[in-house]
Amino acid sequence: MKRLAIISILCLSLVGCSSAPDPITVVIKPIGNEMKYETTQFEVLKGQEVTIIMDNIATEEMMKHNVVVLNDESKVNEVGMAAMSAPGYIPENEAIIAATAIAEAGQQTRITFTAPKKTGTYVYICTFPGHFSMMRGEMIVK
Ligand SMILES: [Cu+2]
User: Does 19 have pLDDT greater than 90?
Assistant: First the structure.
């Protein structure tokens, strides 16, 4: 009986060790009123709960931004182009794994999602029309 109790305590602690990593929050801002992200790379762990905040510190009304994470870098153009005529500038596309809503100048938008189980580099873009060629970054999943 004593041994059984010890084994079950061991199992419980092992389960604790292998549980998902703590959630992470990443704040992404533009550089002032430029069409550029200040943060162009960040790291997360596979399976981690990730919150991305688009903190649009721009003061020019025309500078609206979001953060759209893709699982396929070859789809950047396709998604960027389709976004121009999509509701909220976020198209329906299988390559999109997470997207914040567009943040107006001075506003914040956010999205919470689970990081992919597969390690690698995932590109993120701003899909406000005309921005995706300039506004890009990389989410590294480790
Ligand atoms: Cu933008």
Answer: no
